């Protein structure tokens, strides 16, 4: 006995095509990244590091800086925020590096998933850590005497700068983590730039306190430019002239991040 | 010619023209020769571990330069004294501390991989490995100190008191490093295998690094904090090293350094020995 099957029935019986759901995949991987951040105690360090930095620089140096007419609590705020941002970024780099060495990225390559999803998921986890770091930095800075002086617009500008810079540094660090090859190499690659750019900036002391021969470097390097924008926002005197170098540094950082992520992605594929 | 071999718990030394001289594994001679051999191993491991080598040598030198460039002028103007005489001793002591933390990390790793247990069942002196770790730490501190003193000359550090005080300065660094190193070893062998000892030690060392008379003058700290800063282990060591380099009173600093060194050693030696045995025999 033969049976005839209508077209609609045969369509129901046919195996469903494997469908990719990038948004769901991104959500699942973001949740994985955030839970990892919780488990590894990175939120604890996100709180400890700005408090530690604020205490360790403010208590020994505030009276020294007072002699130069600097309100050191107010002066330190941008660099403490940027150091917190830097902590979140180095955390992102280490996570990317561990994912690479543990082979999870290679596994993701063979799944029906767009290749950008893991990177965006790591970025989301980093953004959450970044927001927590900024909140903790704000608390730490408030304790040492920082108060927002630029009104609503200035304060929004201050945090917007920190957030944009944080996301870009996070992307850059993510690329470094993928390219470096191992957590140890990643740690080494991040250590020197963090130390040099962080210390040799106008974040801790005014540019006039540096020896003359190094002042041009200190004045023009990216951290100093970010600090200048944040201070100008905080004082409510931000101009395009102050903002322009930061915009160009951000464009450069984004370009470098794209290149590094491209190299890292190709390395995973190979 | 003397040849040495270990055989069933004894060290046999054969003098080419005489009869063999036999030392038991618990003898001083066995302890000495085996400690030297194991110290050589520790130093080779340290030299081959490039990241740790960079952290122990390059980072302190770079930090010294940073402190001088960033804070040197500000502190110099505020105190009327060249900040190099605080910065160089500070960085020497910090280098010793962070090197000891790296050694503790390595000890924990060797404990986890079973190397301590293997050494414990070999016919070698029980104290040789622990002695070798302290000895290799002292060699590392000596080399680091000399390199940092050489780097210090680039930022204006000079010995104005002659050779004796210069040697004294190095001895202060060695004493401080030995006390801190043995304390770190004691903590490492007594901590649970998965305990986050390194982050805590790092945090403690970083706190000491910022709250001392080498980073900022004592008078710059808030009044309530000054007694703590003045009497923590690093401050008297830095003050003594400064006095040995450029002159000045040193009796009080020397007394404080001696008290801290003896106290740390007294509190750490027995726990280090007991903890090492426990770590080596734990299953």
TrEMBL record, chain A:
Keywords: Antibiotic resistance, Cell membrane, Membrane, Transmembrane, Transmembrane helix. Its main location: membrane. Residues 24-232 form the ABC-2 type transporter transmembrane domain. One of its GO terms (molecular function) is ABC-type transporter activity. It is a multi-pass membrane protein. It comes from the Bacteria. It is found in: Cell membrane. One of its GO terms (cellular component) is ATP-binding cassette (ABC) transporter complex. GO terms for biological process: response to antibiotic. The chain crosses the membrane at residues 43-63, 75-98, 119-146, 158-180, 189-207, 246-264. Belongs to the ABC-2 integral membrane protein family. This is ABC-2 type transport system permease protein. It comes from Gordonia westfalica.
From TrEMBL, chain B:
One of its GO terms (biological process) is response to antibiotic. Residues 51-275 form the ABC transmembrane type-2 domain. Coiled coil: none annotated. The keyword Nucleus does not apply. It is a multi-pass membrane protein. Keywords: Antibiotic resistance, Cell membrane, Membrane, Transmembrane, Transmembrane helix, Transport. The chain crosses the membrane at residues 50-71, 83-102, 138-160, 166-190, 197-215, 254-273. It is found in: Cell membrane; Membrane. The keyword Cell membrane applies. One of its GO terms (cellular component) is ATP-binding cassette (ABC) transporter complex. GO terms for molecular function: ABC-type transporter activity. Belongs to the ABC-2 integral membrane protein family. This is Transport permease protein.
């Amino acid at each position: 006995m033969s049976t005839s099957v209508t077209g609609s029935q045969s369509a129901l019986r046919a195996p469903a095509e494997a469908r990719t759901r990038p948004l769901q995949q991104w959500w699942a991987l973001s949740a994985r990244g955030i839970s990892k951040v919780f488990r590894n105690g990175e939120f604890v360090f996100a709180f400890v590091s700005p408090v530690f930095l604020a205490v360790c620089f403010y208590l020994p140096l505030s009276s020294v800086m007072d002699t130069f007419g600097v309100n050191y609590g107010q002066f330190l705020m941008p660099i403490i925020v940027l150091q917190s941002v830097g902590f979140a970024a180095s955390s992102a780099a280490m996570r990317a590096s561990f994912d690479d060495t543990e082979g999870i990225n290679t596994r993701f390559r063979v799944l029906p998933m767009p290749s950008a999803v893991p990177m965006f998921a790591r970025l989301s986890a980093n953004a959450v850590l970044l927001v927590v770091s900024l909140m903790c930095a704000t608390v730490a800075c408030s304790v040492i005497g920082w108060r927002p002086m630029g009104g609503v617009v200035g304060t929004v500008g201050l945090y917007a700068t920190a957030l944009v810079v944080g996301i870009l540094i996070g992307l850059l660090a993510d690329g470094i983590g993928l390219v470096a090859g191992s957590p140890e190499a990643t740690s080494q690659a991040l250590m020197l730039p963090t130390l040099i750019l962080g210390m040799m900036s106008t974040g801790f002391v005014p540019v006039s306190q540096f020896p003359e021969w190094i002042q041009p470097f200190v004045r023009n390097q990216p951290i100093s430019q970010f600090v200048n924008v944040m201070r100008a926002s905080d004082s409510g005197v931000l101009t395009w002239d102050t903002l322009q170098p930061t915009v160009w540094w951000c464009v450069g950082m984004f370009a470098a991040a794209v290149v590094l992520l491209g190299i890292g992605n190709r390395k995973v594929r190979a | 010619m003397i040849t040495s071999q270990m055989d069933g718990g004894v060290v046999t030394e054969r003098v080419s023209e005489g009869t063999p001289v036999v030392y038991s594994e618990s003898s001083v001679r066995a302890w000495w020769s085996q400690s030297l051999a194991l110290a050589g191993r520790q130093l080779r491991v340290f030299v081959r571990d490039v990241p740790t080598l960079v952290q122990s040598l390059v980072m302190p030198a770079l930090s010294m330069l940073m402190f001088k460039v960033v804070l040197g002028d500000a502190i110099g103007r505020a105190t009327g004294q060249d900040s190099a005489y605080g910065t160089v001793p500070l960085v020497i002591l910090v280098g010793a501390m962070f090197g000891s933390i790296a050694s503790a990390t390595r000890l924990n790793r060797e404990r986890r991989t079973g190397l301590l247990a293997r050494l414990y069942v070999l016919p070698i002196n029980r104290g040789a490995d622990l002695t070798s770790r302290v000895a290799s730490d002292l060699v590392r501190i000596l080399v680091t100190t000399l390199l940092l003193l050489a780097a210090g000359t680039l930022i204006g550090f000079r010995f104005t008191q002659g050779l004796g005080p210069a040697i004294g300065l190095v001895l202060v660094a060695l004493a401080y490093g030995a006390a801190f190193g043995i304390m770190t070893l004691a903590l490492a062998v007594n901590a649970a295998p998965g305990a986050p000892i390194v982050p805590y030690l790092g945090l403690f060392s970083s706190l000491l690094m910022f709250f001392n008379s080498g980073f900022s003058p004592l008078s710059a700290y808030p009044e309530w904090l000054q007694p703590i800063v003045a009497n923590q282990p690093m401050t008297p060591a830095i003050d003594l090293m400064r006095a040995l380099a450029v002159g000045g009173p040193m009796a009080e600093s020397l007394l404080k350094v001696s008290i801290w060194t003896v106290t740390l050693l007294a509190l750490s030696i027995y726990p280090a020995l007991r903890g090492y045995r426990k770590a080596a025999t734990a299953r």
